[in-house]
Specification:
With about 800 residues, this protein is of the alpha+beta class. It has 20 helices and 29 strands. Helix 10 runs parallel beside helix 11 and helix 15 runs parallel beside helix 16.
Length: about 800
Amino acid sequence: MIDQGGNGRGGNVSGFGIGQAVRRREDHRFLTGAGSYVGDVKRARMAHMCVIYSDQAHADIVRIDVKAAMESPGVLLVLTGQDAENEGLGGLPPYFMPEDAGGPPGFRTIRPILVSDRVRCVGDRVVAVIAETADQARDAAEAVEIEYSPRPCVTTPDGAAASDAPEIWPGCEGNRSFTLAFGDPERTDEAFARSAFVVRLDLRNNRLSANSIEPRCALGEFVMNDGDGQYILHTSSQNPHGVRKMLANSVLAIPETCLRVISPDVGGGFGMKADPYPEDALVLWAARKLGRPVRWIASRSESLAGDNHGRDQVASAQMAFDENGRAIGLRVRAYHALGAYVASATVAPITFSMRMLPGVYDIPAIDVRTSAMFTNCSPTGPYRGAGRPEACFMLERLMDEAGRVSGLGQVEIRRRNLIAEQALPYATPTGFTYDSGDFAGMMDKCLELADWEGFAARRQASEGRGLVRGRAVTCYIESAGVFNERMELRFDPSGGVSILAGTHSHGQGHATAFAQLIHDWLGIPSEQIRHVQGDTDAVTFGRGTYAARSSMLASTALRAAADEAIARCSPMAASILETDVDAVLFSEGLFRAAGTNRTVSLQQVVRGFFAPMGVPGGQSLGLSTVGTAGGEAPNFPNGAHVCEVEVDPETGAIRIDRYTVVDDVGKAINPMICEGQIIGGIAQGVGQALVEEVVYDPATGQLLSGSFSDYGMLRTDTMPTIAARLEEIPCKTNPVGVKGVGESGTIAAPPTVVNAVLDALRPLGVTDLQMPLTSARIWSAIDAAASRKAEPA
């Protein structure tokens, strides 16, 4: 449920404007099975691809024999890495490196679309088999013979930093691609030297798989148009223009106009689908060679092994406090796993895991550093939150520990350190400037909604049932809205309009939220507003959707496009109203002649742009407008979470009894969509805290969690009912006042759950836990604590 908190909402009488909790217009199509995904796209003579993935974590390829596969029934083509090299195909580079933005130099890698010499993780692509049917392709893949010469491997980022770790990339010293550092080491050393007490924790942020409902899919075609060949790729992607750019420039070496990328409905992405993968290139290459469409759909096991993973950070964190419980210094040394390659935008989460470390607290001195380490595992990339969860986890675990050590408790230690509202705008030691917010207010409202004061009675009731009960509060902030964006409004002769979106909705409800904006600003009925996305031939340019960017950047760009439409329409409205353009006023979808009762709607004016003979007012034929958003200044969603858990000491089972969240989302375009995003994010954060982890065997690098029998996924009976409340403190760095919401829930949930469980278990002697908090891990921690108590002094 959403408590609107008495905040003013958009006053649009139609019930569809900004601030209205209208149902998503997309949902009927999805719920009735009318969605259109890559797997639904079928073409005549379509062939099917099976990719052979390395079953070795680190090995030289000695021999590949495809003869038997080529002779298998239905087989059309078998491709190897040597074939790719012979044809001059490139690989997939990182989107950017720190040095591209003025940071330190790093060791770059290029990810081959098929590996020809040395595999560096289980899941490296080695051979592609294309056949008439998917079953025939899989059967033939079994006939391919690959001989490997194994090499030593390493699967953890701290292990990769050890002096005796095997070398993963020749010339990359210590397996370290780059090191990022923020803050003032000398000032931080001084703060620690004069501190009253210091808290220290060693923390591990577990590796995760996104596990989208729709696995990754790709359908490649090569068609001849007027003598010129064009590639067409249907792919399950959050960022079709980004996919086009990398595949055209880095792999195929063709002009971008020769590649059309279509991303239809996408069944979940969470950052994992923001980038191209080898399979996207392979289906295009195979389609050109065969002259037939080629499709590939990942199995669940292929997804768990081959998708980019998230998190995988190891950190040693310390915080220094003065005698009044005020934080005066923060020091962090971390290792963040890259996996086998610097893939996609993985630099982003590594950067944000350090830059967001001050959080909502006034910490005057920091010295934080992280090293990006190669490991013999699948590459990591942005996953919902992208570095903000890692930062929040470190910070909030330290705050809880400080509250325990100082005796101030969970709430008071935070209250003494929160950035005061009057201190805004506030510049952090890592280079961000928070423009707006009420961090103490968010915490207080969350504590009230959670009935923090009633905890003692609930704990007593739990103890009566043989259970222990704990609670925790977390304060969080994130940076949202990166890169620039372009949105276009294309009007039609009836007065309707199509929004050509550079963003990409894959569950965020853009077709509804963007229509609410345009309806509010231009007065066009919602049923006459169309949303177009995901086709590089239809949408001139865009950056896609990730990093909670679309609410701010798309709305800012749409505002500019709407303002341009009003400006373009004003001279024609003046002609229709028989008045001077300076006397034309616009509001609520109507142009008015000042001092008269004469009006004309924007839609009526738009029709004038399509007059069959001439155009009134000397205007051009047709009307389209473009708005852009620069993205120079991000926004900072923030809020507070409270969690209460019960733990059964006999079994280690955890039950989340109550979960409360209050979020500052700036101006809420659609509160219902905001609620869905928050709850979905919390579910993923709770999943990380309790059950999810990608596990590799440390000796062999084999993937031990390669199916849903082994990889824990949150179930509906584990998720509590979420009590949620929105607070609207408008952002001051964009004209709409919006702040991101898509990643908020994921950021704060892991430390809130872990701290609550530790609060419950501390009376039993358990003082530290690492995620995920499985029942076995909890039971073992309780048993170990009991054994320590039983030991003689």
